[in-house]
Design a protein that fits this description.
253 residues, alpha/beta, Rossmann fold, six-stranded mixed sheet, four-stranded antiparallel sheet, globular, binds adenosine-5'-triphosphate, binds magnesium ion
Amino acid sequence: MSTLLKVVSLYCGYGADEIIHGVDLHVAPGEIVTILGPNGCGKTTLVKAILGYVRAKKGSILFRDANITQLPPTERVARGIGYVPQLLNTFKPLTVVENLELGGYRLSSAGRHAAIERMFALFPLLAERRSQRAATLSGGERQLLAMARALIVSPSLVFLDEPSAGLSPVRADEVFQHVRAIAAANVAVVIVEQDVHRALEVSDRAYVLVTGRVVLHGPAADIAVDERVRGAYLGVRETPRPSEVIQQERQGG
Ligand SMILES: Nc1ncnc2c1ncn2[C@@H]1O[C@H](COP(=O)(O)OP(=O)(O)OP(=O)(O)O)[C@@H](O)[C@H]1O
Ligand SMILES: [Mg+2]
């Protein structure tokens, strides 16, 4: 499969504080990729560097084979990279429609109108609440609005930073169902998620980041059963296998 995004040996951080130490990562068209790792390991920083909000110190970022490492965020978005930040991802005083109009401000008015209708078809819940202010939406509805706002300009790749944070299980399920629908429309999705179970379930591949380095990557199904990942992130304690228990009993252990 061809590559949509390719990050090569990326180093970045804040001032003298280097957070990302040589990360390699790639995303194919329509693929769902999860980035997981402990709090503070640099997941958000990595995403911000790919979007251009954090400057790369070394390494390169290629999107559709073009080097975008030095481009400002607005130009990366214009080339088709969408971003739903971890926090502050909607304009709360504005209505649902106004939020979507703002997301599509670069489009012609006819294009914007059509795009908003497409988003209402994809997120029927938002259509029902089109005149409601974002401030009065539930957390889950607001997350869907943030996703719709990022998708309105038809990106080919979208980053979702902690899309299920603070949501009930039912609402989180809705968000992940939408992730599947988005990818089915050939939009690649990169998810940063605390809910490792749900994220791996919908993902094709995953990267595990620890203190700014990729320590493990591969098919999501393999990462989900990896003992190191299970122990650290999936809350699975290592339990002895039945044969080991029998062995211990025989030895009187
Ligand atoms: N604007 C900033 N200035 C200085 N240091 C920062 C800034 N933003 C983040 N950091 C630091 O960079 C490190 C990585 O933070 P980052 O937000 O990328 O982690 P994360 O993996 O997304 O964590 P979480 O799972 O908690 O969201 C942390 O030590 C954090 O304190
Ligand atoms: Mg983060």
